[in-house]
Design goal:
The complex is a heterodimer of chains A (251) and B (349). By secondary structure, chain A is of the alpha+beta class. Chain A is built from 6 helices and 10 strands; from the N terminus they run E-E-E-E-E-H-E-H-E-E-H-E-E-H-H-H. In chain A, strand 9 and strand 10 form a beta hairpin. With 349 residues, chain B is α+β, with helices and mostly antiparallel strands. Chain B is 26% helix and 27% strand. Chain B is elongated. About 8% of the residues of chain B have low confidence. The chains are: A alpha+beta (251), B alpha+beta (349). The interface between A and B is large, with 42 and 42 residues.
């Protein structure tokens, strides 16, 4: 198991002053600015009598959003609705806007703006930004999410899993998988494409589980697994801790 | 004047007023002697029988009508030619590229153009005169991704080469002008004899005639059946006239060489509580959900499998909207998809 990311994840919280909550998250070549407004009044025709409407808007780094962004919005909406306590805000709207500012480019071929090759690699960065943004807006959540993208390749007859693959590695891979787990360790989202068997999928799932939900017992998992990618769950926690500490500094 | 005789409601009124308890009451009958069924009379794992009719459109190169319960979809495939000189950033494939995956012509030059339209009136929630709905756009993207990631269409059948030297002399008679483009050939293109001069672009249009749930599976089955039915005329590059010409005779039309038979299978997870949190209450897995069921379920799983060459290959998994589905569940879902594959395979052959 290898990873291609050299620098760890970085985040800035609550830097947009007009939005209720905001965050900028950059990791694995992506930088995404997120903003949350909510709970605000929903439009009459959209409102749900007993729960809040979650609205996600994804804007690409170049051009206007197309079918690909609608698909990503749909996936994010159904996922985030599960962790936001929507029943606390009946007839309200929680709007999450995610603007991609930097996306990694494939240096080997011309990138296409209109219909990009694949939707999946950006999904973990979008999920992570959305969770940080929701926490910045103090929206009550049942859990946080951690997400990872893994490419499976065959090299010299042996299978290899690449965490956070580059655009070139994705192109050469046999299959590409995205997993998202809640902080309770439940699998909430999976998207896979390419060609694989059930056994391979289970192996990759186990790899993703090691990435996203490392066991808290400490010493045992500090081997090669822990070094292979950033622990985004711990990262989210430490970012929030740092933010709260700086907010309470005047006391 | 109608006065209610009692407080009992008819089942259709019950279904309209509170659909969730209605479906739950059907799946969890109070009387233990009745078998739990869905509101549409099916067992939880029972799918609808697909009916497939091909070559129903006369002007398309391939077409199919697929009926899956009350979801009816028509798909037409139309081929058009594009000259390589008209493709921006065109890179002539070297012989080494043909085998390796470094060059994906279908994706780089957009040789497959799927579009999905949900016709007005196919279901009450589709209104006339509005831009494509989120559902239509999502379906288009998913179909586009699956078409490319499954590598279903053999790109070598889409390449158009110069005519072989010493071919028929009477080609003037049976030629059909296909392309009016009269661009100058660039210097680089002349260099090699067997260079690709043009490509076929496949426009794959899917129209929902009636919509009763499970749109992705039905649309994908229609695309699969239409592509299997597609026959492209024999096209070649005429060096003298500098344009692509096609043989008129139907006998020379070549079918697309499809790589495998991927079949999609979707299931929704229905939970006993409307706002289920993890670990509370029972759930049902409804395979091939209809429109009512889709509206009541948060979590959806789609598995794409292909077992044309014996062992089962998985070509795609998509699951979102809940935490009920875990790894063990996914195994069962793949088994369900395998039996769905047999069903579609039988209908398509």
């Amino acid at each position: 198991m290898t990873t291609t990311t050299t620098s760890g994840p970085e985040a800035i919280l609550s830097h947009l002053h007009s939005a209720d909550g905001s965050a900028t998250f950059s990791y694995a070549g992506y930088t995404i600015v997120g903003a949350v407004n909510g709970p605000i009044e929903a439009q009459r025709r959209d409102e749900i009598p007993e729960e809040a409407v979650v609205d996600v808007v994804v804007r690409p780094a170049a051009g206007v959003g197309g079918t690909r962004e609608r698909h990503l919005e749909g996936l994010l909406q159904s996922t985030l609705r599960q962790i936001i306590l929507v029943t606390n805000f009946p007839r309200a709207l929680i709007q999450i806007t995610l603007q991609v500012t930097v996306a990694p480019e494939n240096e080997y071929v011309n990138t296409k703006v209109v219909q990009a090759n694949t939707n999946l690699p950006i999904l973990p960065a979008l999920i992570q930004t959305a969770v940080l943004t929701l926490m910045s807006a103090a929206i009550p959540l049942t859990a946080t999410l951690t997400s990872v993208v893994i490419a499976a390749t065959t090299e010299d007859g042996s299978n290899r899993e690449i965490v956070n693959p580059t655009a070139r590695e994705i192109e050469k891979s046999r299959s590409l998988h995205v997993f998202a787990f809640t902080s309770h360790g439940d699998l909430i989202l999976t998207q896979s494409e390419g060609e694989f068997t059930m056994q391979e999928w289970e192996d990759i799932l186990a790899c993703a589980q090691r990435q996203c939900c490392p066991s808290t017992s400490g010493d045992i998992n500090m081997g090669d697994d822990a070094a292979s990618g950033a622990d985004l769950g711990t990262f989210t926690r430490s970012v929030m801790e740092a933010k709260i500490a700086s907010d309470l500094y005047w006391k | 004047m109608a006065t209610p005789k009692s407080l009992t409601l008819s089942s259709t009124t019950f279904a309209k007023l509170s659909p969730h308890p209605y479906l739950l009451a059907n799946l969890q009958p109070a009387d233990p002697s009745t078998t739990p069924t869905r509101t549409n009379g099916r067992q939880p794992a029972q799918t609808r029988t697909p009916y497939i009719n091909t070559s129903s459109l006369s002007h398309a190169h391939g077409s199919a009508v697929v009926r899956n319960g009350d979801t009816t979809v028509i798909c037409g495939v139309r081929g058009e030619t594009i000259l390589t000189s008209a493709i921006p950033n065109y890179r002539a494939p070297s012989p080494a590229d043909h085998s390796s995956s470094s060059l994906d012509e279908a994706r780089d030059y957009d040789l497959l153009v799927p579009n999905i339209e949900l016709a007005t009136g196919c279901a009450p929630n589709f209104l006339p005169g509005v831009p494509p709905t989120t559902l239509a756009q999502t379906l288009s993207t998913r179909v586009y991704s699956l078409l490319h990631s499954s590598k279903l269409v053999d790109v070598s059948r889409l390449r158009i080469y110069p005519e072989q030297v010493g071919g028929e002399k009477n080609k003037e008679d049976d030629d059909e002008k296909m392309d009016e483009a009269e661009e100058e050939i660039d210097e680089y293109a002349v260099s090699e004899d067997k260079a690709v001069k043009a490509y076929w672009v496949l426009y794959i249009d899917v129209l929902f005639i009636s919509f009763d749930g499970n749109p992705f599976d039905t649309a994908w089955t229609a695309i699969l059946a239409a592509l299997r039915d597609t026959k492209l005329p024999l096209a070649y590059w005429d060096a003298d006239r500098e344009m692509v010409l096609c043989k008129r005779s139907q006998e020379k039309a070549i079918p697309l060489n499809l790589q495998g038979l991927p079949v999609a299978c979707t299931a929704s997870v229905f939970t006993a509580k409307e706002k289920q949190k993890k670990g509370s209450g029972s759930y049902w897995v409804l395979v091939d959900p209809d429109r009512l069921e889709e509206g009541l379920c948060d979590e959806t799983v789609t598995v794409v499998v292909d077992k044309l060459r014996g062992s089962t290959k998985i070509l795609g998994i998509s699951k979102h909207g809940g935490t009920v589905v875990g790894p063990e569940f996914m195994k069962k879902m793949v088994a369900t998809a395998e039996s769905r594959w047999d069903e579609i395979h039988a209908a398509i052959e």
